[in-house]
Structure formats: structure tokens, C-alpha cells
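Our working data are protein records whose layout never changes between entries. An example says more than a description, so a record of this kind follows.
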Amino acid sequence: MTHLRPKARLFVEAPLAGGAAVDLSPSQAKYLGAVMRLGPGDAVSLFNGRDGEWLARVAKIAKGQGRLVAERMTRPQSPEPDLWLAFAPVKKTGTDFIVQKATELGASRLLPVFTRHTASERVKTERLAANALEAAEQCERLSLPEVAEPVSLKNLLDSWPGARLLIVADERGGDRPVAEALRTLAEGGGWRQRAFGILTGPEGGFAPGELDLLAGRPFVVRVTLGPRILRAETAALSLLACWQAVLGDWGAAPLPRP
């Protein structure tokens, strides 16, 4: 017998195990009851970033409160790519878009970076975290990306772990095309044990002094994204997609669908 996947999927903080009761937040209860029209006995998928994905049932739901009971694990927790995205924030909706799509593309940590040409002077990390959570629920990943507090480009580089390669989209041309650079890393062996980061700049690009600062760091790999000038949002997501295709988990089998 084929079982349909639950209509709703939620991230929760509570531990997940067979028979575990999970109390909903008011917003989650409203979403399941008023938006999804679920009631007692209906199925919901749950994940917490630690215990895999679980099928749960609505035990009770009312205005502003609800409880689910976990029944069985549907997917075990599995390793995900260790890939950070450092990006210069753009206008509010553009930053939201970067966060949502970077979550779908498997970024494990999101780091807003202020550069000389960064258009946005304020970043609300709570808003970014909420966007990442919603995207993770929808794309069926088993974890949430960490959303870091914004830092300056200099502070980012000064605190960057030296063992983590930082792939930088360099609009001056970079050292080599992105596909060539990533293939070289893949062919070098041991890349699955390496930690990676990606850095993309603001609208208007990095200032010349910032590109010189990047060029002087031994962990930086500068790449070009081709002959066209890409929007900041497009550059970030293009580089993430290239990394996933060559070094990431896009070779894994897709999830089974009913």
C-alpha cells in the first residue's frame, strides 16, 4: 500500500523518538489548524536537525496550542555538505531571496558581510533565520543553516579558519573559470574531507582594495563566473549550484516520492 507524504512539515526543537510528545508553538498550531486544516489523527513530518525525520500525528489542536506524537522515523539523520556562504547583503527582498535559495542549495552556514559597496546598512538576523527555517521545511532538508551575525569583510577574513577553502567570485576575472577550479579541487583527492566556503560581493562588486585583500589570503580561491555581469543574488546562487554539482551532494539519489 502506498502512503501519501504528510501535507505539512515542521522544524521543532524537541527531541524526536517513538511516542515522544511535541508541543507546538502558537504560530505552528495556527499554521496546522487554520492554514493546513489538520485535525487529530492527521500526519505531519517533523525534523530537528539531530534525530532524523519523523512521521507524527496530531494529538490535539486548538486555537494557539497543539500537540503532536511522533510515531516512526522516516529518514535517519545523515551528513550534509559543510559549506558556508558569505555574502554581501542587498536590498531586503534580495537578501531574503539569497537566504531562502541558499538554504535549498544546502548551505550549512550563512554569513552576511559588510563591504565598501554593500547597499544595506542593517541586517535583521532573526528575519534571515525565519526565512531559512521556512525554506528548510519546504525543501525537505534535515537541518537548518546557522545564520551568523554580520561582520566586516576584514573581520571575516581575519577570523576565517585557515583549513577551510574560500571560493570567491572575482569580477576582475579571478584565477580561473569556476568549473575548471572546482574540477581541479575534485581531482586533487581528499576533497570530501575538506570544509569549504563561498564569498560573493555586493551590487557594484568588491572595491579594488578588497580584491587585493582577498588575493593575499592563502585559503582564497578566486574564480570567474563567465563573461556576463551577474546580479549579486545570481552570483551567490550560481556559485553554490556549481559547487554542489562538482563537489557537493547532487550526485546523491533523490528522495522517493509516492
